[in-house]
């Protein structure tokens, strides 16, 4: 089982960025925990603040990985290109948001990713990534 977590803009600042919304843990620390917890899953992590790099990574992994876990962050609400990339690839994409986007500003309620995603997980903090990994494992 080969999965990749792709995080979008400003998620490199997790741990420092608005901790009341996103928590105090860095993604690197959480990712190490995930690797330990799911040690029989080949788990990769990619983060970029650049829309085209995120599209490139979806294309690169989207035909031979078993799953993509995508938190496109602010691009979720703006990027037709990322939405199209999700639809263009064969690998199923699970959309994750750390915060409960439904209870936040109305511009966060729309997602270009959701229509092409296998499923969406939001509002559970970093645990959403754990749940997304589990969604790819056998029952
Ligand atoms: C986010 C929610 C987005 O609205 C926001 O722009 C982010 C993070 C989340 O994980 O809760 O950067 O995707």
TrEMBL record:
Q: Does the keyword Lyase apply?
A: yes
Annotated site residues (Transition state stabilizer) in this chain = 17
GO biological process per UniProt? amino acid biosynthetic process; aromatic amino acid family biosynthetic process; chorismate biosynthetic process; quinate catabolic process
Write down the chemical reaction(s) this protein catalyses: 3-dehydroquinate = 3-dehydroshikimate + H2O
Q: Which UniProt keywords apply?
A: Amino-acid biosynthesis, Aromatic amino acid biosynthesis, Lyase
- Residues that coordinate or bind substrate: 71, 77, 84, 98-99, 108
What residues form the catalytic site here?
Answer: 22, 97
Q: What is its EC number?
A: 4.2.1.10
Q: In which pathway does it act?
A: Metabolic intermediate biosynthesis; chorismate biosynthesis; chorismate from D-erythrose 4-phosphate and phosphoenolpyruvate: step 3/7
Q: Which InterPro entries match?
A: DHquinase_II, DHquinase_II_CS, DHquinase_II_sf
Q: Which residues form a coiled coil?
A: none
Q: What is an example of a GO molecular function annotated in this UniProt entry? A: 3-dehydroquinate dehydratase activity
Q: Which family does it belong to?
A: Belongs to the type-II 3-dehydroquinase family.
Function statement: Catalyzes a trans-dehydration via an enolate intermediate.
Give the multimer and partner information.
Answer: Homododecamer.
Name of this protein: 3-dehydroquinate dehydratase
